[in-house]
Amino acid sequence: MISINEIIGDIVFISFSNYERYKNIGINGPDGHYLLKGYDQIGIWLEHPGLNLTNDKKTSKKSNIQANFLVTWDNINTIMHYPDREGYDFPSEFSRNSIGFSFKDVKKEVS
User: Fold this and answer.
1) Contacts of residue 3, Cβ cutoff 8 Å, sequence gap at least 6
2) Is the whole-model pTM more than 0.70?
3) Cα angle 90-16-74, degrees, rounded to a multiple of 5
4) Distance, CA of 34 to CA of 74 (rounded, Å)
5) CA 49, 8, 12, 16: dihedral to nearest 10 degrees?
6) Element spanning 16, H or E
7) DSSP 3-state of 8
8) How far is Cα 84 from Cα 33, in angstroms, rounded to an integer?
9) What are the structural domain ranges in the chain?
10) Tens-level pLDDT at each residue, the chain (111 residues)
11) What distance in Å separates the CA atoms of residue 16 and residue 75, rounded to the nearest whole number?
């Protein structure tokens, strides 16, 4: 069995029940591959694949900005994860031991 905590930070396939909810933020298909950023009681947070905002309407200069969006639990048909697939499965941030001390293996010469 896999826990959702184990796949945070991985790219997953998501199938939406109603993708029309996300048309106004540029999500135009019923499914896709997204980086899973986290989850809460409302749903899952995904990294937006590319959000372009127009900075200056006179020159139409656009900026690509990083953004995350929420998909509510009721709007998820399925989530598919690819264990051990290169470029999709990354080390979990929860498996790292960040509590306590760590020492590098350094050999010192004794004089």
Assistant:
1) none
2) no
3) 100
4) 18
5) -80
6) strand 11-16
7) coil
8) 16
9) 1-111
10) 788 888 898 889 999 999 999 999 889 899 999 999 999 999 999 999 887 666 666 666 667 778 899 999 999 999 998 887 776 665 655 444 444 444 455 555 555
11) 6
Give Cβ neighbours of residue 31 (< 8 Å, ≥ 6 apart).
13, 14, 15, 16, 19, 77
Residue 61 and residue 41 in contact, taking contact as beta carbons nearer than 8 Å: no
- Any residues with CB less than 8 A from the CB of 15 and at least 6 apart, and which? 30, 31, 76, 77, 78, 79
SS3 assignment for 53-111: EEEECCCCEEEEECCEEEEEHHHEEEEECCCCCCCCCCCCCCCCCCCCCCCCCCCCCCC
Q: Are 19 and 26 in contact (CB under 8 A)?
A: no
CB-CB contact of 54 with 62 (8 Å): yes
- Single-letter residue type at 111: S
Closest CA to 10 of 95, 77, 97: 95
CA distance linking residue 49 with residue 36, whole number of Å: 11
